[in-house]
Design a protein that fits this description.
about 350 residues; mainly alpha
Length: about 350
């Protein structure tokens, strides 16, 4: 009987709360539109009815148990009823939220998550999925303290100023530059991109810095300067050299740069230069003679201390079977490769 009394009292209290809530909703007619109030009222009525049905089922179930003479441990009844009741209510809310999502009514789904289930994260996700980006951003920021998700939503809402402020707080300088660019503010965009470049250079990530110059700032000459600096200062030297040559599309200019840079290459980086030449050799037949001569010079200079370097000859003479035989004879000690091939 304790369970029945609890449920009966709960139903009575529930009806009282429903009446008060309905009066409160109707009172909103003084400062909101009729359709806005009507929508809120309908949502509340649906939820209240579902809630009421659950309560009635529980009451009937307890009556049946009482009549059948089932016994429970003293003191366990109320706890069991409360747990069962609230589990059912929660499941009902979950189903209601999913129903609204299936109907693409994401705002109502968010209200169920936030107001009834107290799940702000899923509420924000529902708003975001439904395209209510500004509203989602507010939930992320105010309730969840998640600046990253809030900034992302403000960005999707094209509220770039708010997104920029958050990205600045998060230290995402490249993202700040991107959004300034979306606002056609090249000056501020480049200022933040330059900060990104400086960070990359400070960490010896010269190639990444060059990509910011080239792709974000539209400064290809600056990109080449930073790559050349990386090569000369031996900071990720091979990748800098490889990208430097890759950015030169004119074959004549490329040949000239290959020759000029080789003349300035110190001895301790000539093997790295040779590795880069293997890539450049494949680009155009017009480059073959100049690159082959450079390769021969490097191999001749380094063969005494790096005997395995003779294997590199095959990359510059892919169709020359004589060279391949000479390499084989050299490796077996029966002959020497004539320098300059």
């Amino acid at each position: 009987m304790n369970k029945q009394k609890f449920i009966s009292k709960f139903i009575a209290a529930f009806f009282l709360l429903v009446i008060i809530k309905v009066i409160g909703i109707l009172a909103q007619l003084f400062h909101k539109s009729f359709w806005s109030v009507a929508g809120t009222l309908m949502l509340f009525i649906v939820i209240a009815l579902i809630f009421f049905v659950v309560l009635l089922r529980l009451e009937d179930k307890e009556k049946e148990k009482s009549l059948s003479g089932r016994k429970k441990k003293p003191g366990s009844g109320n706890a069991y009823v409360e747990s069962s009741l609230f589990d059912r209510i929660r499941n009902t809310y979950e189903e209601l939220a999913q129903k609204y999502i299936r109907e693409n009514d994401y705002k109502k789904a968010a209200k169920v998550y936030i107001n009834l289930l107290r799940d702000h994260y899923r509420g924000a996700k529902a708003l975001e999925e439904g395209g209510w980006y500004s509203e989602a951003a507010v939930i992320y920021l105010k309730k969840l303290k998640n600046k990253s998700e809030a900034a992302h939503c403000y960005e999707k809402a094209k509220q770039y100023r708010k997104a920029i402020d958050l990205y600045k707080e998060l230290g995402q300088k490249e993202k700040v530059g991107d959004l300034y660019l979306e606002m056609n503010d090249r000056t501020h965009a480049n200022a933040y991109y330059q900060m990104v470049v400086d960070d990359y250079v400070g960490n010896n990530q010269m190639v990444k810095g060059s990509l910011i110059y080239r792709k974000k700032m539209d400064l290809p000459d600056k990109a080449q300067e930073i790559l050349l600096r990386g090569w000369e200062e031996n900071r990720d030297a091979f990748n800098c050299l490889n990208n430097y040559f890759a950015n030169i599309t004119d074959v004549k200019k490329l040949q000239q740069q290959i020759s000029d840079l080789y003349q300035r290459t110190p001895s301790d980086r000539k093997i790295t230069y040779l590795e880069a030449m293997k890539h450049e050799f494949k680009k155009a037949p017009e480059l073959h003679t100049a690159i082959r001569n450079i390769a021969y010079e490097i191999i001749a200079e380094k063969v005494a201390t790096h005997s395995e370097i003779v294997n590199e000859l095959k990359h510059f003479n892919p169709a020359d079977e004589v060279i391949l035989k000479d390499i084989s004879r050299y490796k077996t000690g029966r002959n020497r490769i004539l320098k300059g091939g």
